[in-house]
Write a structure and sequence with these properties.
Elements (H helix, E strand, L loop, with lengths): L2 E3 L23 H4 L11 H9 L13 E7 L2 E7 L10 H12 L1 H4 L5 E5 L5 H8 L3 E6 L4 H12 L8 E4 L6 H4 L9 E5 L8 H11 L5 E7 L3 H13 E9 L4 E8 L3
Parallel strand pairs: 4-5, 4-7, 5-6, 7-8
Antiparallel strand pairs: 1-2, 2-3, 8-10, 9-10
Helix pairs in contact: 3-5, 5-6, 8-9
Length: 263
């Protein structure tokens, strides 16, 4: 079950102040070697590339950051957020999707599964998927990648079998160049609250279609707010065999499974 613990609810020994946007994450040397993918102690050749893949971006210089606390898969997850950007806040669909992943880990066979998250934002879903054993690529627009990277590294280093990767993904742009189908295959594509009142819904759908190959499962959780959300769902159903997996009436969130239709 998903739990979000606001900062003021934490006992004193769990309080953490917001990190400055250019902060460096302190790395526990021993923790580096608890991650099976990092190799035995002293194997810096394997550790270094993994870390470098997560150290490409600098967090945006927002005026204020807060830290929110979540409990999933038996782990406390600390997310650095800022209300100054839609992409730096955890939205309700993300916690619903995390709850589903947690409760259906074995059924979904997440261990070592290859997962790409669209619109990862501050990274909660990607972090939970990584903790549950998946090989995760977290994607979003360039301006939020620094904060995404920070949260992923803070919560997965030394705690997961696979360090997640961060990649830029602008919906509908340079897809074949950045994610060639001959190289990239995903067991799951995850998306939460990516549909709201914006002008890129057609590009979002085209990106979803592109990233899904035969066998890929798309899990999409969304809070339905506007008529445009339902219009997108109608278009989604035209190209994906769609199943409603869960519904949360109190929060207007629906969780769908999509499998791309093939002629």
């Amino acid at each position: 079950m998903d739990v979000c613990l606001r900062s003021e609810q934490q006992p004193a020994h769990l309080q953490e102040g917001p990190s400055p946007p250019d902060s460096q994450i302190e790395v526990d040397e021993e923790a580096l070697h608890t991650d099976g993918s990092s190799g035995p102690p002293g194997d810096s050749n394997k550790i270094e590339p993994s870390l470098q893949s997560l150290l490409k971006f600098v967090p945006a210089n927002y005026a204020s950051y807060t830290q929110e606390y979540y409990l999933f898969a038996g782990k406390k997850i600390v997310i650095q957020e800022s209300i100054e950007s839609y992409g730096a806040v955890v939205w309700p669909g993300a916690t619903a999707l995390c709850q589903y992943l947690e409760e259906h880990t074995e059924e979904l066979n997440l261990q070592d599964a290859k997962i790409l998250e669209i619109g990862a934002g501050p990274g909660l879903v990607s972090i939970v998927a990584s903790i549950l054993g998946a090989q995760v690529t977290a994607t979003d627009m360039p301006d939020v990648l620094g904060n995404l990277q920070y949260n992923l590294l803070k919560n997965t280093l030394g705690r997961t079998a696979h360090l997640p990767e961060v990649k830029e993904l602008v919906w509908g742009e340079s897809l074949e160049q950045n994610f060639p189908k001959s190289t990239f295959y995903y067991d799951y594509v995850l998306a939460s609250d990516v549909v709201y009142h914006h002008y890129f819904l057609d590009k979002l759908l085209a990106t979803m279609v592109y990233l899904c190959q035969p066998g890929t499962v798309l899990l999409w959780a969304n809070k339905f707010r506007f008529s445009t959300d339902y219009e997108f769902l109608d278009k989604f159903k035209q190209v994906f065999d769609t199943t409603l997996l869960a519904e949360f009436p109190e929060s207007s969130i629906k969780l769908f499974k999509g499998m791309l239709k093939w002629d």
